[in-house]
Amino acid sequence: MKEEGKKKLWQEYQKEIADDRYFYVRSCVRQSFFPGAEQAFLKIMREELGKDVFEHACHTTCTGIAYHADVVPFDTTMTVVARQFSLMTESGYQNLVPSCITSFGVYTEILETWKHFPEVEAKVREFLFKATGRTFEIPKNLAHASDVIYKFRDSIASRAKYKLVNQQTGEPLRVVEHIGCHYAKMFPHKGIGGAEFPHVLIGMVESWGGEVIDYPERRHCCGFGFRQYLVQANRGYSVACSKKKFESMEPYMPDLIVTNCPGCPMFLDRWQYVIAEMENHTYGADKQGIPVLTFEEMAAMVLGYDPWEIGLQVHQIPVEPLMIKMGIPFDPGKKYLGKNSKDMGRPEIPDYLNYSGMKI
Amino acid sequence: MGKDVLIIGGGIAGMEASAYLSAMGYQVTLVEKANELGGHLLRWERLFPTQRHGKEVLSFLHCGIDGKIRVIKNAEPVAAVTRDDLHIVTLSTGEVITANAVLITTGYKTFDASRKEEYGYGIYNNVVTSADLEEMFSSGKEMLTSSGIVPRRVGFIHCVGSRDEKVGNIYCSKVCCVTAVKQAIELKERLPYAEAFCFYMDLRMYGMHFEELYKEAQEKHGVQFIRGRLSEAAENQDHSLLIKVEDTLTGRPLKMKMDLLVLMVGFEPSDGTQKMAELFHLETGSTRFLKMADEHTSTNVSSVQGVFLAGTCSAPRTITSTITDARAAAAKITSYLSQYSIEQREN
Predict the structure, then answer these.
(1) So what's the pLDDT on residue A359?
(2) Can you say how many angstroms the Cα of residue B347 is from the centroid of all Cα atoms in its chain?
(3) pTM of the model
(4) Contact B114 A194 (CB under 8 A)
(5) Is A199 on the interface with B (CB under 8 A)?
(6) A80 lies in which domain range?
(7) pLDDT at A351
């Protein structure tokens, strides 16, 4: 692999990312999948970096999942998105930051559509006005939340309490990065580094001390793929997709997987558990699987946030081995304590996946 | 005759047209930006369909560059104006040349394969272009992968940068299919135990003996032809390549390991051709090659009076076709300088 070739390519895919005053739109599903991730983003942005990040209580789904599942027509999606723009406008913000990759893809697709077909934008403005009486301005800047963290990766590195380094060996952790399909595959110039060799997560990993693995099935879908999972009969395809990736990355012995999409960490985490129980096979050392993190969780770990405050206990592949490697102290006794130390209950101990040493 | 012709570009077309125009008695000046005449032919070891050496054709072309032709190397036009049917061209050396007719023979460049990012050229160690492979053949060195092993499986990917709307080139480059067949045969001759696969969209074996070469590749050398376009390549841990292709004849996706991947890069107008279009205010077609006045009857005539075209500056061509086109351009320039307009002949 020629690193200089990648660097040359990355130079062609840079994008403008606003410096401050963000209108943040959450994901529909992320708060169920990994509930601490978005909260970690807000804390990092507001408390560490001192940025103005605003959320509107009336923000709704962008309809992205339904749109890509062919349940909602594009006209409806555009009108719903126009309403989000209206909320942003009335709040006095211009820089839109979606938490979800699919939302980012939907917003990008709509803005590109309107750029090339202004009559469609005019029609959507009319739809929105007739339905709600609202008007809106086009965002001045659109960046995914991972773009924003990428922008401030060195600032985060300067505040880091821990590095993506194995404390026992001193070696960089070996990281698999997985980019959500809707980040840049539709519009390569809207993603940092483009579609084929995206740099957005690599930039974070390298800035925080890790080493990225480029493995043969890197570009392959995580297994969410909407239709593969939303249609129950197709779920075998979903597991098969993830399995193909795990088998491809296994020889590189990764220490963790990091993603920037709502679905990817969910499925890369969940299907490792499922495959372990179905086939008695794991892809990490000591039958422990490969921990899967969102980029916000990875940033929060580097910054030394309490792992149970950022929701790492809801991962099905335990994250403790990674924390031990990084030298992050944690209290196993607090793993399943929720707000006000309320006991959240315990998951069942899997048959094959090695949970020994982890507090259940 | 006492008339001057300036030929810009010292590749195949420029050399052959120079020879013909000089033989017809014109004062010919041939300008070449490199320090050697021959263009792409300098880097092409063997030629389809006969497998003769490129050097032989080059030597034939050099025979036509006699002492009457003024050859200026390491120079290129930087300005051009037309005054009273005379073309006044300033070269990068500062010299000003006045000509009654100008022939553009600035040719093509090969497609920059790194633009097909999913194929990994410039990033993966064992992805090369057809031009790179030709240089590997020419070097006479043992063929090895970047890991120092003899390749056992080699894939030839047709139509890289040709017939591809995504990169903005919808045209066929005409020479890549047969070049892949030629190179696959050469590879098998050098490495008889290697497997060679050609991945194609359509095989365009239109030239005399092309089909025979294709048949020979299959029957004598065991080259395998799979109809399908490469979707992506990735690098394995051992620096071999994992490729994904759909075999469109069996309707099945294929995932194959290759030790070496050869991208059959197509033609694009050279930087010199694009620059001449600007300097001489020449129209270009939808493919960005220089526009011919008429695709059937005036292929050597540009959109500017007294400026003519030959070779691959106007369209992808084989060497044979380029030589023929250069001679046709010489004939056309002769009719122009004789003030005989063959296009306006009466039926």
Answers:
(1) 55
(2) 37
(3) 0.92
(4) no
(5) no
(6) 22-145
(7) 86
